[in-house]
Structure formats: C-alpha cells, structure tokens
Amino acid sequence: MASVRQFQVTFDCAEPERVARFWCEVLGYVVPPPPEGFATWEDFDRSLPLERQGSAFACIDPSGTGPRLFFQRVPEGKVVKNRVHLDVRVGTGLVGEERLATLEAECARLIELGATRVRLLPADGNDESCIVMQDIEGNEFCLD
After folding, report:
1. From its phi and psi, is residue 119 left (phi > 0), alpha (psi between -120 and 50) or beta?
2. Longest distance between any two alpha carbons in the chain, whole Å
3. Cα-flanking dihedrals φ and ψ of residue 79, to 5°?
4. CB atoms < 10 A from the CB of 88, how many?
5. What's the CA gap between 50 and 54, in Å, rounded?
6. What is the pLDDT of residues 53-78, one digit of tens each?
7. DSSP secondary structure, the chain, as one string
8. CB within 8 Å of 57: residues ≥ 6 apart
9. What pLDDT is recorded for position 6?
10. Any bridge partners for residue 73, and if so which?
11. Is the pLDDT assigned to residue 116 strictly greater than 90?
C-alpha cells in the first residue's frame, strides 16, 4: 500500500480569496505563482467562465513543509460547528503564564486581521490553555 506524502486542507467558504489571504497572514503562508501562461491570478481568473470566476483560491507554506490550503466557494453559509479545525501552534513547549501571554498576544494580532475570539479553555491539569477562535467567515480554529 502506498503511503500518503502530501495532503491539502480544503475550506468551503463564500469568499475564497479573502479567506485565503487571511490564512496567509495567520500562518505566514504565501499565494503560489499563477498557472503558466498567466502573469497574475487576476488574469487567470478572467480567463474562466463567469460562473467560475472567484470560485477558488489557495495558499502554500513557503518552506514546503506545511499542507496546501485550498478555499472553494460554496452557496450555503456555515451553520454548525466545524467537524475538523486547525490548531495554530503558537504556544508549543510553553506552560502556565508564559503560554497564556503568548496565546493572548497572538490572539490580539489575529483579531486585528478580522478573527473573532470565542473563548479561553484554561489549563485543567491534563491539557494546557488554548484559545478558541473563528476566522473571518466563522470557521473555528484554536490557538494552541
């Protein structure tokens, strides 16, 4: 059996480029180069049939380590909690007040980008603190 070497995480959303650019800022990702034969993504988008224009966008880890994130437009809005979410690992290896201060600082930065703070999950003896947040279209993620 072949083992999977790469995967991408796909987000259903209303505004793919807007959400992709938000996640670029959160994770330090970049927009990949446009397809061959196109100077910009805007040029590529204009080449598509009208109903497909603006329907998808992606971002990638510039180091090539992390998964590609793909954003696709869907007609329905988000109505329930995500079944899968991203953990943005900003506090790895930190504990107590130092961890909480790091999480809070990153939370403040992400709020400036348009994210929403949902709640703090305090350390409980088994797990360290994390902050539950939502991206600009309401998709949950954790600062961990």
Report:
1. beta
2. 56
3. -125, -15
4. 21
5. 9
6. 999 999 999 999 999 999 999 988 88
7. -PPP---EEEEEES-HHHHHHHHHHHHT-BPPPPPTT-SSHHHHHHTS-GGGTTSEEEEB-TTS-SPEEEEEE-SSPP-S--SS-EEE-SSTT--HHHHHHHHHHHHHHHHHTT-EEEEEE---SSS--EEEEE-TTS-EEEE-
8. 16, 17, 19, 20, 21, 31, 41, 70, 71
9. 80
10. 13
11. yes
One DSSP character per residue, 103-135 reads HHHHHHHHHHTT-EEEEEE---SSS--EEEEE-
Overall pTM surpassing 0.85 (yes/no): yes
The token pair at 17 is: 């480029």
Tokens of 43: 């040029």
